Amino acid sequence: MDSTLRQMLDGFRFSLENFASSLGTGNDKLNRARVLMDELYARAEEGADIAAISMDPAFGEVGALIGELASEKPPASEEQAASAGVQAVASGDGIPPAGVAAAGYHMAFDSMDGTTRAKYAAYYERIFGIEARAENAIHFNTLLEEDGVLLDMSREPLIEAARDTLGKAGEAHSPTVDHQQELVISVYDRVETITELEYEGTRMAEFSNVEHPWDAMYIEVIGLLPGCAQAIEAFGPTDENVAKLRSSHRFMADFMGITWDEVFSDPRYLLFWREVFWPKVPSLKRTAYGVSSAEGWRDLLRAKFYDPYVKEEPPVSADPSRARVRFWRKEFPTPEVLGMLQDPPRPEVDPG
Amino acid sequence: MIDSFEMQKRYYVSRLERFGNRPELHRTQIEDCESYLEMLQRAGSPGRFMEMVRTGGNMVSSSKAEALDRYRNRAAVYDALGQERKAAEDRQRMDVIQSARTHGELAEKLTVFEESTVTAFDENKAMNALGSVIEALFHLCTDPPGSGAEERSKAKFAAYWVQMKEADPDVSWQKIMDYPAYRDRVIFTESQMAVLEKKFREVHHG
User: Fold this and answer.
1) Looking at residue A172, what is its pLDDT?
2) Quick one: how far is CA B51 from the chain centroid?
3) Is the predicted pLDDT of residue A25 greater than 90, yes or no?
4) Confidence (pLDDT) at A96
5) pLDDT at A79
6) Where residue A302 falls among pLDDT bands split at 50, 70, 90?
7) Less crowded by CB within 10 Å, the N or C end of chain B?
8) Does residue A158 register a pLDDT over 80?
């Protein structure tokens, strides 16, 4: 029998003997579980490996019985006292060896596929090193707690994933994605417990889940005018496209005090225009129009697909007092949007 | 040779030290650790302590404490966001955890709860539909009357409004304005929302 399998079975047997100390020797479920454990030991000695034992119906039944035994009420006090005495004699100070406490970690590590195992090997080596140093289960649990390896095993892959996402998010040029991943890296680096890790993870993700669609709506709204011009460039000056452009030209000035010039002086929209929109303009079109920059495409749209269709319209003008948006329960001028998304004024959370 | 009694004490003291750096996040776990430290003192030896632990529920209180802290902290995040239904669901989860007496019961009751609850799912569904509802109304302000664009915007509004209604039967324009979980996702100021409300009344007929 290999050592990992033995540790696993020893762990189960130790649990059963623990129940014996409180439930007594006359418990039918306990006796049934003991019989099944003997069968599993016998099969393991005959050469069954950990996978075969895990698939054995007896293994499943023992697991279920251990769960049920945890809910069993102890018998009358005399029997309990007697069985506790037996247990005390049987196991000395009653403290199991470190291997029993570590058995679950061996089982988890051995059941991992190659990729996962390689990813987590360093953490499990730390755990098994602690097991080797520990004199018993209490010592093992204390050293494990003080080492912090379980916290590292949870947070370090998350930090790594955030760095990876941040690298890949470069092309999206999304201030909300960048902010979220940068925050994850710095906040996870300083958490000290799993509870704190979970809390901070939820807090950052849930706030980001509001800011991300907010930003998408902002781009949709602030980009209405170039969007209309772009539709004419792409699909032609149909009555519908021209009517939509003229209507939008008037509406955006009236609704938000925004004209073409304000759109192209908005830092958030410029980031989108230069880094997201312009790179997607097909090279055939760039060549056809002789345009080689985001600014060139902006000027082309205005000269050929915007101004000619609004020149007969009554003049519109910018109004900064109306060029405002609501973000996290306060109003801000639209030119501040990019800065706000990079350092959002989020509401406080009060876990107390 | 280690002193197992001192070692057991060190385990709980170490946990308390970490929890103490942010006590507001670990309230129940701190109480739980302190109760085990007291039990350890009463037991006088690690063997007797382990026996007391076994007969006292095999540390189900620690599993419950960890879960209670987790969901109380998460409910606080939802409270800050005004996501009342998600916060309420976590508080129901806490009631379920409180009611469990054994590890088996804890796992079983939580499984039953997770399989039956839809409150948080519905809140997310309604919030996700809201963006499309508002964007459709915004475009309807400039879509030429009778155009294909107007037809598409109306269809988009109708489809996402149905989704919102399914997920939140109480949803109304007033609720979008008053409920922070909805209002915080919309970029428009109060005066801009007044313009969109007119469009909403036109397409929603009321």
Assistant:
1) 77
2) 37
3) no
4) 85
5) 38
6) very high
7) N
8) yes
What is the mean pLDDT of the segment spanning A220-229? 98
Which tokens in the block code for residue A249?
């030209």
CB of A207 closer than 8 Å to CB of A187: no
Query: Could you give the ipTM of this predicted complex?
Result: 0.95
Q: How far apart are CA B131 and CA B128, in angstroms?
A: 6
Whether B4 sits inside 8 A of A347 (CB atoms) is no
Strands (DSSP E) contained in chain A are: 324-327, 330-333
Contact A222, A269 (CB under 8 A): yes
What 3-state DSSP class applies to A324? strand
Residues of chain B numbered 88-127 and touching chain A (CB < 8 Å): 101-105
Burial of A288 (0-12, 13-18, 19+ CB in 10 A): exposed
pLDDT at A77 over 70: no
What residues of B are in contact with residue A195 (Cβ under 8 Å)? 19, 25-26, 29, 66, 69-70, 73
CB contact under 8 A, A217 and B134: yes
Residues of chain B predicted below pLDDT 70:
206
A51-60, A72-81, B33-42: segment of lowest average pLDDT: A72-81
- How would DSSP label each residue in A267-308? HHHHHHIIIIIGGGS-HHHHHHHT--SHHHHHHHIIIIIIHH
Nearest CB to B185; choose among A196, A210, A224? A210
* pLDDT averaged over every residue in chain A: 87
- Please check whether residue B21 is in contact with residue B32, taking contact to mean a CB–CB distance below 8 angstroms: no
Helix axes B84-99, B119-140, angle to 10 degrees: 180
**Angle made by CA atoms B82, B65, A12, in degrees to the nearest 5:** 135
d(CA B188, CA B134): 10
Question: If you compute the radius of gyration of chain B from its CA atoms, what whole number of angstroms results?
Answer: 26
Interchain contact B14–A (C-beta under 8 A): yes
Q: What is the C-alpha to C-alpha distance for residues A342 and A267, in angstroms, rounded to an integer? A: 12
- The Cα–Cα gap between A71 and B103 comes to 8
Range 56-85 of B in CB contact (< 8 A) with A:
58, 66, 69-70, 72-74, 76-81, 83
Contact A146, A152 (CB under 8 A): no
